[in-house]
Structures are given as structure tokens and as C-alpha cells.
Design goal:
single chain; alpha+beta; 7 helices; globular
Length: 181
């Protein structure tokens, strides 16, 4: 996906999303290549989507651009010749990263088995952080219905944290309920 970033490191910034470059087989593209430049999914072909991003992401993008620059067409990620990264490259790097980042049990599980699972984890993290479903949906480009049906609840080892937050909310709600009352 091509994105234009307007960055203000102190308070965050925005990404302006305008086009996608999905990979498919040659028979399903307009010109017989594996990638077909298109507008945003389920939107008018000329539509854009402006997504707010936090300061941490602004800094990470700025560091990436400073070190690697962008492709001639503005893409953030490219191969060594400036071309489109192949899906096998993504898969190989993803599997190596999983082995380094996870415990052996997590690496053997389906947890974050593919790069797209990061989307599930991000949206669940935002919901768990208390961001309202309407705002998370807006940033993700989904409806609230799709968000809650598909993305809520995808993180590993969250039960203790969630129980503590529920307990804290109940403690703040008022006097304790007496057992047997």
C-alpha cells in the first residue's frame, strides 16, 4: 500500500492512504502482472483515507526513511533493486522474526503465523487499551460490526490483565457487595 506521511514527532501524525498494490495471479490483474495498482478496498477508486498515527510510529517511519529512503513511486518497503518485495521474502523474514521473538511454545503455535495477524493484534491492543470501537474501526477502515466480529480477542496471555482491569473497574464502582446479600 502506498502511503504519504505527514509527521509531527511530538504529537503524532497522519498517514494518507490512497492506493493498494495487491498480489494475485496474472490472470486476475488488468495488465497480466502479479500486482495490480488499485484504489482502496471497497471505496471509490479515487478515495483516500487519512489515518492518525502515534508519535512512536512517526519516529519509526522517519528512521526507516532516513536509513532506506523510499522507492521511486513512494513505497516505504522495496527490494534491493527498488522493486516490489516478493511474498516469499515476507514469509521468510516473518518466520525468522517469530523464532527470535517468541518462546518455543509460542513459535510452535499458530500465534502470529502470518504478517496479516499483526493487524488482528494491533486492533485488539487498541480495544484493550480502552480506545472506543468507533475510533478503532475508523483507523482500521472497517465497520464496528466487522471489528468486533473479526478482530476483538486475538492477543495471547491477556486474561490476567483483563481480570485486573475488570476488578479495578468494580472497585471504582462503589461499595463492595457482601457475600450472600
Amino acid at each position: 500500500m502506498r502511503a504519504t506521511a505527514i509527521c509531527r514527532p511530538a504529537d503524532g501524525g497522519t498517514l494518507t492512504l490512497a492506493r493498494t498494490l495487491p498480489i494475485t495471479t496474472k490472470k486476475w490483474t488488468n495488465d497480466g502482472v502479479r500486482h495490480d495498482l488499485r484504489g482502496l478496498k471497497q471505496r471509490d477508486p479515487d478515495a483516500i483515507r487519512i489515518v492518525p498515527i502515534p508519535p512512536l510510529l512517526v519516529r519509526a517511519l522517519q528512521e526507516h526513511i532516513k536509513e532506506f529512503a523510499t522507492a521511486a513511486d513512494g513505497r516505504l518497503f522495496r527490494n534491493e533493486r527498488g522493486g516490489i518485495l516478493g511474498s516469499t521474502t515476507y514469509s521468510r523474514v516473518w518466520e525468522e522474526a517469530r523464532q527470535l521473538a517468541f518462546t518455543p511454545a509460542q513459535a510452535a503455535s499458530p500465534l502470529a503465523g502470518r504478517p496479516y495477524d499483526l493487524r488482528h493484534a494491533a486492533l485488539t491492543t487498541w480495544l484493550n487499551a480502552g480506545i472506543g470501537p468507533a475510533e478503532v474501526s475508523k483507523r482500521a477502515g472497517n465497520t464496528v460490526e466487522v471489528l468486533l466480529r473479526r478482530y476483538a480477542g486475538c492477543l495471547d496471555n491477556q486474561a490476567d490483565s483483563i481480570n485486573r482491569r475488570i476488578e479495578h473497574a468494580l472497585d471504582d464502582a462503589g461499595p463492595e457487595i457482601e457475600p450472600g446479600a
